[in-house]
Amino acid sequence: MLRYLTVPVTAFQQNCSIVYDDATKQAAIIDPGGDVETLKAAAQELGVKIEQIWLTHTHIDHAGATATLARELGIPIVGPHPADQFWIDLLPQQSAMFGFPQAERFTPTRWLHDGDTVELAGYTLDVRHCPGHTPGHVVFHSREMKRAFVGDVLFAGSIGRTDFPQGDHATLIASITQRLWPMGDDTVFIPGHGPESTFGAERRSNPYVRGT
């Protein structure tokens, strides 16, 4: 079955997740924002082989190490949605602005769109386009695991920022209510920062989306 290990990286403590199959040891890494050696060491400790990079969006703390990791491991970059192209183009400026190691631009091997899927070791995860935090943000949902990797769309007790270029609050709320909530109240989500929660818990108590 699929399992995952979440490894906080960068000064922003971004939740990078290594998703892997217990049997085949095939793995994908979601949002490698930085600390490449830490991530490679975590994969080695798990005994897994990282074969793909999946990106929810391309802010520096989520995508800063993408080009380096893809080149070193010879693996494809999958996602996000093409509306995030301008954030990829700005990666060098983003790294300078936030004091990160110099980040490289890259071209995804495959862009993602709403309704697409990604596959790992015979397992399929659904892709939902969830703009608002960034215009090209996507979410990865595993029905078998009842897990969703949501990047910076939703947090335990909060929601993603919308004050960056091309962010939009109303769009973000619509993404949460129309695309995350239907995944089910019992679905556990792994946010881009902070602890995990469930969609049901956030519908009941999150001040930004409570009762929606």
UniProtKB/TrEMBL annotation:
Residues 13-193 form the Metallo-beta-lactamase domain. It comes from the Bacteria. Its cofactor is Zn(2+). Gene3D superfamilies: Ribonuclease Z/Hydroxyacylglutathione hydrolase-like (3.60.15.10). Keywords: Hydrolase, Metal-binding, Zinc. One of its GO terms (molecular function) is hydrolase activity. This is MBL fold metallo-hydrolase.
